[in-house]
User: Fold this.
Amino acid sequence: MNIPFTKYHGTGNDFVMIDQTREKWLNAGDRATVARMCDRHFGIGADGLILLEIGGAGDFEMIYFNADGGLGSLCGNGSRCTVHFARSCGILMDSGTFLAADGLHEYLIDERGWIGIHMADPKIEEATGNPYILDTGSPHYVHFSDDLDRIQVVEAGRAIRHEPRFPQGINVNFVQWNQDSLRVKTYERGVEAMTLSCGTGATASALALALHEGLEGEQVIPVEVPGGSLEIKFFRAHTGSFSDIWLWGPATSVFTGVFSV
Assistant:
């Protein structure tokens, strides 16, 4: 079987995209095949794999797999790439909705060509100190540092990800606030490495910044990740609750090909 695919990245967070709007190539049980396609030595190489499908709620559905082949939770950068990919497959709208692992999301495309994803309101587990623990479609641990460059992200992130208090694992973000932008480095579960960018991690880090600095009202937080720039917009009420959260950033098609299984 020869599976056609397109390789994408969103600020360096890369994905194998497969169009299943006309023909079904893979399903949830094809873990070994997905892992092989994502393998950087013996496959295409990617942080994850995404199936684009039609049916149910929204203009399309995004089914996301981690690089290890397991079904994943929401992927923010992957969501933007899926919107871009859906347009290349004939779903030509500048705004609409799509279905992901955590429910229905709105999307928009702005004058920069950046894609915005409306994120669900967060579930906050720890909000009164450093670290912060919250779920933005995927669970995240956020630790603020005065010197991000000195942190051994892989070693420290792996240790936290495997702590017994996180039986399902957790994504680990190390962040530094420079008054004009938020620097974020993320160790991702499922990839089991530091990725160049994590959309839900950038979102979680920006919301944690609001908790850390007491920010209220409408906020636009520029986020710098190793793979580029993102932007998180949200509103925080004086009661402390968050709403109208948007993840903004680019999505880039890299190449197309056929993978033989």
Remarks:
- The CA atoms of residues 21 and 241 lie 38 Å apart.
- The chain has two domains: 2-118+251-260, 119-246.
